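Journal club prep — side note

Before the paper discussion, L.F. wants everyone to see what a predicted structure for a comparable chain looks like in token form. Sequence:
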Amino acid sequence: MRTQIRLAWASVLAAAFLAAMGFGQSLSPGKEKVAAKARQLQSWSTDPVIVSAVKAFNANPPAEARGMTNEKWKQLTLLDPLVRSFTKGVLGQYLKSKQDDQMSECFVSGADGAKVAFLSKPTNWSHADKDKHRVPMTGKTWIGPAEQDESTGQVQVQVGLPVLDGARPIGSIVVGLKVSKLN
């Protein structure tokens, strides 16, 4: 009887180990695949539609944006007119036209980290205190770890790109890449 119990436990542990190994591999797409996709997205940094929208936002943020906080943002529903204005506006529709099946999310932020447009409501209104915004504001690309995204529920890798006015960073673009589509 004890031998059977030990064999059963050994089988359970082996299955758990193998499942964990497979799951761990699915969470880590090849760095070269993420880097290649990041290189493809680089043109968005100087895309005239994106740059123009960020410049306009930085020069004159909408009144609703001026008083928004992450706490207030989390209280808004997907159907709130303010939230919908970011997906239905010119830049939101433009982002939608550029979306491919590898992308789980995309949002564009102004210099202050506040949202200019997005494909779907991100968890936070501002990412000013996060590397996904801070690093692009230095003119560099940022690539985050594979993780389950709170707003989309997808396992993804986020890529942060600068929005450039000439060589000067004026905002950021964050694109979530679906790990399942990168493997």
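L.F.'s comment for the group: Residues 1-27 have pLDDT under 50 and may be disordered. Keep this in mind when we get to the figures.
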